[in-house]
Design a protein that fits this description.
three-stranded antiparallel sheet; 68 residues; globular; 2 helices; alpha+beta
Length: 68
Amino acid sequence: MKKIIKIKKFFNFYKIDGYLIPKNNEFLNENIENEDNLKYITNYSGSYGFALILKKRNYLFVDGRYTL
């Protein structure tokens, strides 16, 4: 949660309303070796997902195989 709070501090500075954190890298390649930003921020380590960080809410979207 501390990492998400740090991200939100940049919202006013950069005048943005939200931030999208994908599972894949900036080249939309699924073969990520050491740069898994989604796992770093949310501790989610599944094969597909993304996080949407907004000013007042946070969302984590994952593959249906990972839901109960």
